[in-house]
């Protein structure tokens, strides 16, 4: 995503307008790579989020409340010591890099005035949050980078802070004339590459936008451009830089036909001609809205790595076991032939002599065709028949046992697939705690008692409202599915579930009243959307009254059976329903 120097310059302007001159009243660290500063200014409390998460580093004002750990982390305690009560003097962006420096004035332990710098580097997996003193000596950082990790630049306490190498790029705010601009981009590179590889703070997206506004294809080699074309590129570039210098930003999100946010920028991105541009008044509101769901999912994904690996390992084991069982089952398909041979031997005992190695008889199972049967000369004719019956009975017993084993294995696979689905769709840490608890109770994890307060919290099913005002509840995991199917619904409510695939239980509160057709369609769309086949164009959804559901004794969480139901083919969709924030 284009969290480039231009977006950061917009954020810096917004922060200068809101929190510069304010005092830091609170410092929290809800995650190991995330800091939130609460700043009081203009009689308003602002929360500044600083994230060094490798997948989506960022900084912006936020309105989201996050749960903090019971015991503060060491870096958080250090920041509290140096920053709480501090006055924010300035916020700057050195050399238009993806770096923000917050200068803070405070009092030290002796009551003397001191100065600190909080430096946020927004650089992918190299992102960091660094605290220095007034002499640019590092006090500590959220990620320590020693000499064994980087030979270019150490980020370690009691080391001098130096800016990351700029790779020879030019600061766009210092390019004041056409000749300088031309000298910087000239060469055999494509125009788009020449712009973002040689000018600090420019992303490929913004470079493409400049090419589009200049009506020149981004893949055109710079040295192949005419003087008029290069002049056109420069004029577009100059207008952009003037807007940045004036602070005349226009934060915009690009939304595709399915309402998915696919890109954003500090200025409108017009080369997405077939998409919708949605303007925002605040760059912080834009960034928070854009990253919020992705950040939550990324964080949940990190915290569920061990669970997903455990489930996948057990799934692979079950599928391997099932394949072996099915192969063994296939080996029992010829069992009847041994019974037939035994009967044919038994029916022709009169013509078989001890020591015979074979006998030819009339096979009355196949139109009295002659059939030659191989015999064991060491056995009597009667024993040869018994031997064939024994083979038949052994395979018959194997068939019966395998049928039960296969049913058990398939049930285990079905349960593990539902857990895998629940992990993929967990929205909160409480959802993960419920899945972890389920895995402990079903024997996949060793049971352990958590001392965390979070372990005591219960996640709730998602609550939607139909276009006609009906309450619809969606389970996010098997515990919530059980809760919906057994306690949070009555016999007159309607139950929906994607047919024969892992997915959420969906309950529509109806209290025995007939539902309008549109509500059936919306609830079925929800059940299809919250299923393994979300990306399919159509999904078959079963629905029935809750009173028709039955949960067998000893069955896995989330498992129910039913014998009376209707079915709908629907597209997975959230159309018509509204998420209710209880």
Automatic annotation (TrEMBL):
Which InterPro entries does the entry mention? NFACT_RNA-bd, Ribosomal_uS13-like_H2TH, RQC_Subunit_NEMF, RqcH_bacterial
Q: Which residues form the NFACT RNA-binding domain?
A: 463-554
GO CC entries: RQC complex
GO terms (molecular function) for this protein are: ribosomal large subunit binding; rRNA binding; tRNA binding
Domain of life, per UniProt, equals Bacteria
List, alphabetically, the SUPFAM superfamilies matched: S13-like H2TH domain
Could you tell me the Gene Ontology terms of the biological process aspect for this record? rescue of stalled ribosome
Which keywords fit this entry according to its UniProt record?
Protein biosynthesis, RNA-binding, rRNA-binding, tRNA-binding
Q: What Pfam families does this protein map onto?
A: NFACT-R_1, NFACT_N
Membrane-spanning parts: none
Provide the family line: Belongs to the NEMF family.
Q: Which function does this protein serve?
A: Key component of the ribosome quality control system (RQC), a ribosome-associated complex that mediates the extraction of incompletely synthesized nascent chains from stalled ribosomes and their subsequent degradation. RqcH recruits Ala-charged tRNA, and with RqcP directs the elongation of stalled nascent chains on 50S ribosomal subunits, leading to non-templated C-terminal alanine extensions (Ala tail). The Ala tail promotes nascent chain degradation. May add between 1 and at least 8 Ala residues. Binds to stalled 50S ribosomal subunits.
What is annotated about its quaternary structure and interactions? Associates with stalled 50S ribosomal subunits. Binds to RqcP.
- What is the protein named? Rqc2 homolog RqcH
């Amino acid at each position: 995503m284009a969290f480039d120097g231009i977006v950061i310059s917009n954020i810096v302007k917004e922060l200068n307008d809101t929190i510069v001159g304010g005092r830091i009243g609170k410092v929290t660290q809800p995650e190991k790579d995330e800091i939130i500063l609460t700043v009081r200014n203009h009689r308003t409390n602002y929360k500044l989020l600083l994230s060094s998460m490798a997948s989506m580093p960022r900084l912006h004002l936020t309105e989201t409340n996050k749960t903090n750990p019971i015991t503060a982390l060491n870096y958080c305690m250090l920041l509290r010591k140096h920053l709480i009560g501090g006055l924010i003097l300035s916020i700057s962006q050195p050399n238009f890099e993806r770096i923000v420096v917050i200068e803070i004035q405070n009092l030290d332990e002796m009551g003397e005035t001191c100065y600190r710098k909080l430096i946020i580097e927004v650089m992918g997996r190299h992102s960091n949050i660094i605290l220095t003193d007034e002499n640019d000596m590092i006090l500590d950082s959220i990620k320590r980078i020693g000499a064994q990790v980087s030979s270019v630049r150490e980020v370690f306490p009691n080391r001098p802070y130096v800016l990351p190498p700029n790779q020879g790029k030019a600061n766009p705010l210092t390019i004041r004339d056409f000749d300088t601009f031309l000298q910087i981009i000239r060469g055999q590179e494509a125009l788009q590459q020449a712009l973002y590889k040689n000018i600090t703070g420019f992303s490929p997206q913004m470079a493409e936008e400049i090419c589009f506004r200049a009506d020149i294809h981004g893949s055109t080699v710079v040295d192949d451009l005419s003087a008029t074309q290069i002049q056109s590129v420069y004029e577009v570039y100059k207008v952009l830089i003037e807007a940045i210098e004036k602070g005349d930003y226009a934060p915009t999100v690009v939304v595709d036909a399915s309402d998915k946010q696919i890109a954003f920028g500090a200025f409108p991105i017009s080369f997405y001609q077939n998409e919708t541009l949605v303007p925002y008044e605040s760059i912080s509101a834009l960034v928070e809205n854009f990253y919020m769901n992705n950040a939550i999912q990324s964080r949940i994904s990190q915290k569920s790595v061990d669970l997903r690996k455990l489930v996948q390992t057990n799934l692979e084991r079950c599928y391997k076991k099932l394949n072996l069982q099915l192969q063994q089952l296939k080996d029992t398909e010829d069992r009847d032939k041994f019974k037939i041979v035994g009967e044919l031997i038994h029916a022709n005992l009169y013509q078989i002599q001890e020591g015979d190695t074979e006998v030819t008889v009339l096979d009355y199972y196949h139109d009295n065709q002659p059939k030659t049967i191989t015999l064991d000369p060491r056995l009597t004719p009667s024993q040869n028949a018994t031997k064939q019956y024994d083979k038949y009975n052994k395979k018959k017993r194997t068939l019966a046992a395998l049928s039960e084993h296969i049913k058990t294995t398939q049930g285990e696979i079905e349960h593990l697939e539902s857990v895998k689905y629940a992990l993929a769709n967990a929205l909160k840490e409480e959802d993960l705690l419920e899945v972890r608890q389920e895995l402990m109770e079903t024997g996949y994890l060793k049971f352990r008692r958590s001392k965390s307060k979070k372990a005591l919290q219960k996640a709730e099913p998602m609550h939607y409202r139909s276009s006609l005002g009906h309450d619809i509840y969606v389970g996010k995991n098997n515990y919530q599915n059980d809760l919906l199917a057994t306690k949070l619904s009555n016999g007159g409510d309607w139950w929906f579930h994607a047919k024969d695939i892992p997915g959420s239980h969906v309950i529509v509160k109806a209290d025995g009243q007939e539902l309008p057709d549109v509500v059936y369609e919306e609830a079925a769309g929800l059940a299809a959307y919250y299923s393994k086949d979300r990306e399919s164009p159509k999904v078959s959804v079963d629905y029935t009254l809750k009173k028709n559901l039955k949960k067998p004794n000893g069955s896995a969480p989330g498992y129910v059976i039913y014998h009376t139901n209707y079915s709908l083919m629907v597209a997975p969709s959230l159309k018509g329903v509204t998420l209710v924030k209880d």
